[in-house]
Every structure is written in structure tokens, then in C-alpha cells.
Amino acid sequence: MKKYSIKALVSIGMLSSISYVLMLLNFPLPPFPNFLMIDFSDIPALIAALIFGPAAGVLVELFKNVLDYFMTGSATGVPVGHIANFVAGILFVLPTYYIYSKLKSKKGMTVALISGTAIMAVVMSVLNYFVIMPAYTLFLNMPAMDSPSLRAMIVTGILPFNILKGLLITAVFMLLFTRMGTWITSQQYKSA
């Protein structure tokens, strides 16, 4: 693993803190179930990945979720939702980073963000079907949903929610990237 400078470690810590605060500012969207919340906490992780590399993005996602778990807790007693958020963040940030590193342009960033959204939405739908929803029913001692009901909830709720969330993050990040793109690129060379 890459050794980070003190400046990089401090920056990752600060971006993790910002990401945690953004995670607290979550909100539901009316057509979706109340447990699905929109937040923009993946943006600092994406900035960390772009400047310091993919491991930095993963660290920001990890620290954000660990902070949130210890500060707010979990309805299940175990961090099922936090693990799901961590995995979703990684599934969004890493593909975006790797695609953008091949297509270094504003258009390349748009393609990277849309690809990251699609990958995150599809993989999270599969994980929700096989792992996350069964874990919630296990830890909350709820009766398990039958397969058609679970599949319907994922196809009509979770998949469109993740697509919409990714597109909202894409829109906000592109607004930032148009202003900060040159600075991010200059920071990449300084941290290399």
C-alpha cells in the first residue's frame, strides 16, 4: 500500500470529517421507502480518490461510516446499513476513479460518473437481494420477504433510488469539478 505524507493523511482525515457531516444531512425522497436516504457524502471520497489515489477514497468511505456508526448507532445493533453504505460508496468511487484516470477530460469525468452510478446501482441491487435485505430481516427478527416481493421492492425501489442518488451526486460533483478540476489536477501531481 502507498505510504501517505502527513499532508495527505490530514487531508484524508478532513475529507472524512466533511463526508461524515454530509452523511448526517441526509433526506428521503417521497416515492421511495423511508429507509433509503439521499446524501452527498461520497463527494469528498471521490475528491480524495482523485487527488491521493483509490485507497484514499476507500479510507474516506471507511472513516465516514465508522464515525457515523459510533455517533448515531444502528437500528439492528450491527452496522448492516453502514456496511451497505460503505460498499455502495466504494462501488461508486472506484469505477469513477479508474475510468476518469483513462479519460482525463470533463467529458471523461461525466462518462466516469455515469458508469460509476450504473455499476453501483446494479451491484447494490444484487447485494440487497442476496445479502443486505436478508441480514436486516435476520438482525431485526422480522419475517423474511418472499422472493417475488423482495425482487419487486428491489426493482421498483432500491434500483431506481440508487440510480437517482448517483445522478444527483453526479450533477453536484460536476458543478464542483467545473470549478475545481484544474486545482484537483494540480494536487494530483503534488501528491504523486
UniProtKB/TrEMBL annotation:
UniProt cross-references to InterPro entries, sorted A to Z: ECF_trnsprt_substrate-spec, RibU
Keywords associated with the record: Cell membrane, Membrane, Transmembrane, Transmembrane helix, Transport
Molecular function via GO: riboflavin transmembrane transporter activity
Annotated membrane topology: Multi-pass membrane protein
Pfam families: ECF_trnsprt
GO cellular component: plasma membrane
Subcellular location: Cell membrane
TM regions (residue ranges): 6-25, 45-63, 83-100, 112-132, 152-177
Main location: membrane
Role noted for this protein: Probably a riboflavin-binding protein that interacts with the energy-coupling factor (ECF) ABC-transporter complex.
Family statement drawn from the similarity comment of this UniProt entry: Belongs to the prokaryotic riboflavin transporter (P-RFT) (TC 2.A.87) family.
Protein name per UniProt: Riboflavin transporter
Species of provenance: Mesobacillus campisalis
